[in-house]
Write a structure and sequence with these properties.
By secondary structure, this protein is an alpha+beta fold. It is 61% helix and 14% strand. The two termini are 22 Å apart.
Length: 325
């Protein structure tokens, strides 16, 4: 954690805003990130190989459900490729104007996954409704069923790989949701193909496509909502500012809290900043650093906030504050 406290800074200079780093947070993201990349690459190879064969069979069999699955699988490939690229960017250290590095690249990738899911869902739904209401397509159930069953196996393997990675990352979770909805889509396609083989009712193919589209839209909307909250710097889900304020005011000698902001830099990295008003005596008896330690322990214990910045102010300084936010 980084923090700001009134008094002397670590270099001995008298200043109203001294920085302290007296916390032993050890977050080893390197090993997990390397493992995530291996799992993502394995899933990517599986999907590309299967997708190429699926497109050929979909065209020959005349199956919209199978073609929509192939389109969704193409978005899966793009999602995983984007996730790998974003992970590479996010691993870059802070430099120059990029004071947090490129960590938000993972959130942009997740938002992109959400957009592609919603767009593909809309395209598939429109075509499925057209077929359902205006045409009676000739769908060959046998090839569709075989490819769908193989697709279930491939997606189970790819989903298993991504399930082993860290889904605390919104970026990885976005790629995982792509695969999971694709798996559901193949199950629906297999059911539709079985109905076509048993009854000859080819409209089952379009109905299966609608179900796939609904799943894709639901997953995409969830990703957009979560990534949007982060990009717009809303407080993390489950963190109420009133609760944070009450906990900070519960620390001895903290008289007031203002300019309180909580946001998320990237997945699993919530940040907080605030101005804390203390008894004037705390700045004369050297007690301010101990209060700083206590409020940071409070945040870590109750809200799992890893990065926090505080400005500690004596009560007499309040009249100099131009405004609070």
């Amino acid at each position: 954690m980084s923090a700001m406290a009134g008094g002397r800074d670590p270099h001995g200079h008298e200043d109203g805003h001294a920085h302290g780093h007296a916390h032993d947070h050890t977050h080893d993201h390197g090993v997990a990130a390397d493992a995530d990349r291996r799992y993502l690459r394995g899933a990517l190879v599986l999907l590309v190989a299967f997708m190429l064969g699926e497109v050929v069979v979909a065209v020959l069999a005349g199956s919209l459900a199978l073609l929509s699955d192939a389109g969704h699988m193409l978005s899966d490939v793009g999602a995983i490729a984007a996730a790998l690229w974003a992970m590479r960017l996010a691993a870059r250290p802070p430099s120059g104007a990029w004071t947090f590095g490129w960590k938000r690249a993972e959130i942009l990738s997740a938002a992109g996954n959400g957009v592609t899911l919603v767009v593909i869902a809309a395209v598939v739904a429109v075509e499925a409704l057209r077929r359902l209401l205006t045409t009676h397509p000739d769908v060959r159930g046998g090839p569709v069923l075989v490819v769908a069953l193989i697709g279930i196996v491939v997606n189970l393997a790819a989903t298993w790989l991504l399930a082993k990675s860290s889904r605390r990352s919104l970026n990885v979770r976005g790629a995982y949701l792509h695969l999971l909805t694709d798996l559901y889509g193949f199950v629906g396609t297999a059911v539709a193909a079985s109905i076509i083989l048993a009854t000859g009712w080819t409209q089952a193919d379009a109905i299966a496509s609608l179900l796939v589209a609904a799943l894709m839209a639901h997953a995409g909307a969830g990703l957009l909502l979560t990534s949007g909250r982060i990009l717009l710097e809303a407080a993390p889900a489950g963190v109420a500012l009133l609760d944070v304020r009450d906990h900070l005011l519960g620390v001895d000698h903290v008289l007031d809290v203002h300019d309180l902001h909580v946001w998320t830099v990237t997945s699993d990295l919530p940040s907080l900043s605030a101005h804390l008003v203390l008894d004037d005596a705390c700045f004369h008896d050297g007690h301010a650093p101990q209060i700083l330690d206590e409020v940071q322990r409070c945040l870590g214990g109750h809200f799992d906030v890893e990065h926090s910045t505080f400005q500690l102010e004596p009560r007499s300084h309040q009249e100099h504050e131009p405004g609070v936010h």
